[in-house]
Amino acid sequence: MRDEFGPDAVILDTRLGRRRGFLGLFGRRMVEVIAALENESTTAIDNRGNQPRESSGRSDLALETPRNSLASSSTGRQIEAAEETESKPAQMVWQMYQETLLAGRQISDVNSSQAAASTYESAYPVELQEIERRLADGDVDPRLAMAIVQSVWKDVHDLELAPEAITAKVKERIAAMLRCVPPWEFDGSGPVVVALIGPTGVGKTTTLAKIAANYSLIARADVALITLDTYRVGAVEQLRTYSEIIGIPLKIVETCEDIKQVVEDWSRKDLILIDTAGTSQRDTERLQEMGKALEPIADLERHLVFSATTRYRDLVDIIRRFDSIGFDRLIATKLDETNTYGLLLTAFAVARRPYSFLADGQKVPECIHVAEAMQITNLILGDA
Ligand SMILES: Nc1nc2c(ncn2[C@@H]2O[C@H](COP(=O)(O)OP(=O)(O)OP(=O)(O)O)[C@@H](O)[C@H]2O)c(=O)[nH]1
Ligand SMILES: [Mg+2]
Question: pTM for this one?
Fold first, then answer.
């Protein structure tokens, strides 16, 4: 730990455990270590004997600048997305996209839209055609890919631009279309209350633990946890373990009244994070039940968590169905498990709600980043 963080590092806690193998077999021993520095505290959970996931190969996600670091994020409530007005070029793309949708094709109907894209008169240069193809191949809705390159072509067709300059223009445009919110700021006027909702197994609990650890241990905010997940065996224990390691309270609630009471009791906290049971978007009854349980909480931020490995059509279905109970932000997880990221733009196009966080690995608390439009764009089109 001292090698990593220097002579001032203090070990707060260590525990031995076993990394679960197949059905609990073939587990590996692991050591979890929590350490702190005097002024600038930091934490790490290290799995010994387990190859650490290299972030260097993924420089596009290594958002280590202070602006992106959760560690520097303890001031200022997340700015309402509505305050950000969209730029004219971004509006142009959305308008063109809407027009294509209104022309009668369903958003999930990828095949017909691919046909539409290929029959569309491609009067623009090969670089733009190539970008359009790359976007559509990478799970950007082909009609959106077309709207993007068309809108860029409208602006640049008189200019003699080098291919790199054209790519840069496309990236600029995509970044202008995507909205992301900055980290929360806390002003003592009451807690920011956040619920993570989403399908089963997408990483809600892990993401919640990452957020809690960063805000509590690094940003020194007063954080508390609630779980509504009494549905899945072991769910409470999973979150309890995190709450104990981080050293923050956890309340398990089952009814609407309970949750309202707990939130009221924690009126002096900075951040209250609510974990929910994974719900299949097809289970309308449970989805509505969960929507009801969260209803009594005033000013609740609902973040829809989805995995970047989800299939295109399923994602559209997930967003539509979760929209029936409402959500305000998007969180994409498992970015480390895919090489194509166009789905992030498609998700935004369908949801039109800003991203808050991106998660790219299992490690708590490291593998989470504040979402940034240019970072998402670089993932989609490469860093060059
Ligand atoms: N590779 C990768 N795995 C992740 C990421 N986030 C979570 N996981 C893993 O995904 C699995 C499920 O994570 P959970 O946090 O339990 O997911 P959940 O959404 O809470 O699941 P339910 O509560 O059962 O719906 C675990 O093995 C996590 O370690 C990520 O960003 N990348
Ligand atoms: Mg969970």
Answer: 0.78
